[in-house]
Amino acid sequence: MQKRVAVIGAGASGLAAIKALRSEDAFSTIKAFERKKSVGGVWVYNSNASPWRSMSSRDFNLEDKPVDCEYISPMYETLYTNLPSKLMAFNGFPFPEGTDMFPHRSVVLKYLQDYAFDLLELISFESEVIDTWKEGSEWVLRVKYSEREIEERFDFLCVASGHYEVPAIPVTEGLTDFANRFPGRVMHAKYYRRPEEFKNQKILVIGNGASGLDITIQLADTALLPILRSIRSTSQLPWLPNPQILEVPPISHFCADENAIYLKDGQKLTEIDKVIFATGYYYSLPFMNRFCHGENALISDGERIRGLYEQIFWIQDPSLAFVGLPWQIVPFPIAEGEGCVMARVWSGRLWLPTKEKMLIAESERIAETGEDRKFHCFGYPKDCEYGQFLYDWCMQAGKGGQVPSEWNGERRELRACSKELKIEQLARENKG
To answer: What residue ranges do the domains of the chain occupy?
Structure first.
């Protein structure tokens, strides 16, 4: 019996999925579709990035594709990881000896390119999946190759296309009018590239995640001081207090007539040259619009992918699986674990619970996290627990296949202290 598998995406998650599928030696066809010219996904850096076309869009399936057809990555020039390279590595494939503990984005991209060296024959580059539907038991993909479109058929579909495509900008009173009145004044962190572009400007950064923290630190060297950062809560990410950065309350509303931004404590900000929203991304499936409507829609508002069992399998039809949806995790080994589970289930070496039990599991997750983006959010130590769960699940199949990382012992200890290690690194850089 033939088993044909399609994988959408050849970033870190897609590569992990491809390697896990191939290791099962159970599939007649494994074909990955990557719209870019090379592997790496979000780690492929674009030196130039055009601004987002609309500050008020809630179209979470909007593709962010500029005129030159080069897809925009959220990577910025001086991005360094927040996680130790030893922790980030796939199982059995360490970063090269001598790699910095917190490497530059270019080192991570080279690592992924090396990891993919024996997978390239399974990847079709510059091939964009533009539509997907089901005919009987087959998944039909309409794929655009240069100037031609072809329909290709598979038995299983793995979506590993990431979740850093459509910028999420919170609906805020007066924002649309403000952005239209002052073109270029408002942007999303996805389009930030280097601090020199903001020299002598007064900046307000909104958000307290990894990019918000990092961008404010970088801007302190070039922009007018203090850099303002609007936050709702204290960050759980590595961070050192900085007298050049002033934390302010959340935004109440924008007022274009006054060229002002009001905060929730009543404070009025004026003469702001740039507002940078570091507020995350919507989940989007532009190639699966047929599955984004109705009672069993995969997406309803871009906040999460709906109807999934353990973040991976679509409960309505487990021949569709996702790899790489969770965030606030250690992404590469977690994606590897998800890919290994998926490959074992599809090869017939592992079994899923009944549909009823899978629906109950999703309901329990919703009760714990809510219906928004937190559904896919883990953080420490829950990411370790999830990683170990994936490992234990894989091991139920017995020997054979790609083995994911185990999350007990040394790996868990390193995850536990990764925040402190990064803070120590930042402190050394400040002294230097």
So the answer is: 3-166+282-420, 171-279
